[in-house]
Write a structure and sequence with these properties.
Blueprint: E1 11-12, H1 14-25, H2 38-42, E2 53-59, H3 64-81, E3 87-93, E4 98-102, E5 105-109, H4 114-129, H5 133-149, H6 155-161, H7 169-177, H8 179-190, E6 197-198, E7 200-203, E8 206-207, H9 210-213, H10 215-222
Parallel strand pairs: 2-3
Antiparallel strand pairs: 1-6, 2-7, 4-5, 7-8
Helix pairs in contact: 3-5, 4-5, 4-7, 4-8, 5-6, 7-8
This protein binds 2-acetamido-2-deoxy-beta-D-glucopyranose (2 copies).
Residues 51, 53-54, 204 line the site of one 2-acetamido-2-deoxy-beta-D-glucopyranose.
């Protein structure tokens, strides 16, 4: 059974935790989302190959819900669609961290402590040195599994354990330890927009809560072209 990131595992921003308490205390009226029947919608699709849906994930290296989403939703979905041109994945490890420029470098404070910052910059460097999605996700899958299981105690040991994925251990290690990783992490911070919690998924610029439950379905719905057969669910 796949466990979706729930209120227990999602990592709320501090503001959002307060807002949620207020929302729970009030009666909420929401509009009903009206779903278009697929056969009606189909006639609107262009027959030209559409651009892939840009899937952007904000996450943190030690956030339980992020870990679950990456291993149980993102990577299995990618495995199904990688040859279809349906989605384009961008990972942004930073989430609810904060940063400050001090003493000539960026100092980060991470939601789950300093080890999470180690994991974030490690993943930032992996993403930088392995931009191709297949390879990147193969490495991230290994890193996420080991780093999380060991509570982020030794990121360098985690990196070495994942050497068999083909990760460039030397470059990534030097990056994560030095100025390069520090600057790259700051860029990810700048590219982390407003969000209420992590994992936070953005499909073509619009945040999607539905994607947390069923990424494939959400991506298929966001796709502007004729949906590939993997979308026949
Ligand atoms: C995929 O996303 C990256 C940003 O991470 C962007 O630079 C690139 O143009 C996108 N590719 C397509 C085909 O949309
Ligand atoms: C995905 O992002 C790239 C780069 O920003 C952009 O050129 C492209 O149009 C986006 N794709 C869609 C479907 O919005």
């Amino acid at each position: 059974m796949k466990q979706k990131p729930s209120s227990q595992t999602a990592c709320l921003t501090r503001n959002m935790a307060n807002i949620l308490n207020l929302v729970l205390a009030a009666a909420v009226c929401s509009t009903l989302a009206v779903a278009l029947p697929r056969d009606l919608a189909t006639s609107w699709y262009s027959l030209e190959a559409a651009k892939p849906v840009n899937v952007t994930l904000y996450f943190e290296s030690l956030c339980p819900g992020c870990h679950q989403f990456i291993l149980q939703e993102l990577i299995p979905t990618w495995e199904k669609v990688k040859d279809t041109g349906l989605m384009n994945v961008t990972l942004r490890p930073y989430g609810n961290a904060i940063e400050e420029y001090k003493g000539g470098q960026w100092k980060f404070v991470c939601q789950h402590g300093p080890r999470e910052c180690d994991g974030n910059v490690l993943e930032v460097c992996i993403i930088h040195y392995h931009p191709e999605t297949n390879k990147q996700l193969e490495i991230i899958k290994c890193i996420e599994s080991d780093f999380y299981a060991t509570e982020g105690q030794d990121w360098q040991a985690t990196l070495k354990k994942c050497a068999s994925t083909g990760v460039d251990v030397e470059k990534v290690s030097a990056c994560a330890k030095g100025k390069e990783g520090n600057v790259l992490q700051h860029q990810v911070a700048l590219n982390t927009g407003p969000h209420k919690w992590v994992p936070w998924v953005i499909l073509d610029g619009t945040s999607s809560e539905a994607a947390l439950d069923n990424l494939l379905k959400a991506v298929c719905e966001a796709y502007k072209g004729a949906p590939p057969s993997v979308c026949n669910m």
